[in-house]
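Hey,
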Amino acid sequence: MPQVTLLGPGIAQLCATGFALALLLLSPFAAPAQQHFNGAKALEYARQYVSIGPRWPTSQNHQKAEAFLRSHFQHDQLEEDVFTASTPIGPVAMRNFIVRFPGKKDGAIVLATHYETNYWLKNINFVGANDGGSTTGLLLAIADQLRAQTAGGKKLDGYSVWLLFDDGEESIGSNWTDSDSLYGTRHLAAKWARDGTLSKIKAFILADMIGDKDLDIQRDSQSTAWLVDVVRQAVKKFGYERYFFKQPMNGLSDDHIPFVQRGVPSIDIIDLNYGPNNSYHHTDKDTMDKISAHSLTIDGDVFMETIRLIGQR
């Protein structure tokens, strides 16, 4: 058997004291545990929101969705941007919600999601758990974090952050066209161009369909190159490379396009690979069991780090 050397009580105590001292000296250099975004909270918000049911424009549930957002942000700097959209079914009242959290630097980062469901899917119980629901929950949880950072009149270290819940992203008719889609962001981009607000926006970041359990975010070809690089940097920090930008996405029409067309640095964070061969997209299979807290944690980590990195530019 191996030889065992027994130490006397004095020597043993000296060794123990030295070991404890070494731990004490080394402890400032120990890496703290990585803090992650609360994806479980985002999922719960999504669950509450999706429980409203289908929320197409003109429906009572759409009004309930508006009331849900209004109630959640009643103590924040909330703007309701009301407008009338010209649609294939005639004039339709729509409403964007903009929630502002002030920063120390002049300018703003806009994080956006649409919150309604498709009018033309109103007869199939399409609740849009991933498509509109997951990202609404995500931005609600991001708001909690920003609210905590600005409590007591404090300001964010970088730019202001504006959360945009835009209406009318989906087409009213079953065929998506440039004139029958993106109602909320087309209206808002034009409005902000007229009143000078557009020049204050440093980045427009769109979240769409990224609650998917099988997260696979594509690389949108129309997104601004430097913003893609910043998101890549945020992704690398957390080791999330396998979830981002493995496949290209070309010619996608989404809520960022009205801002892209006006020269605003913009990026679409989207997973348009939802279910086998995208078979859950715009169907009654887009339900809560298809999204996860894990995916929303990944999203939130990357969004919050992206905000921080842009604020340092």
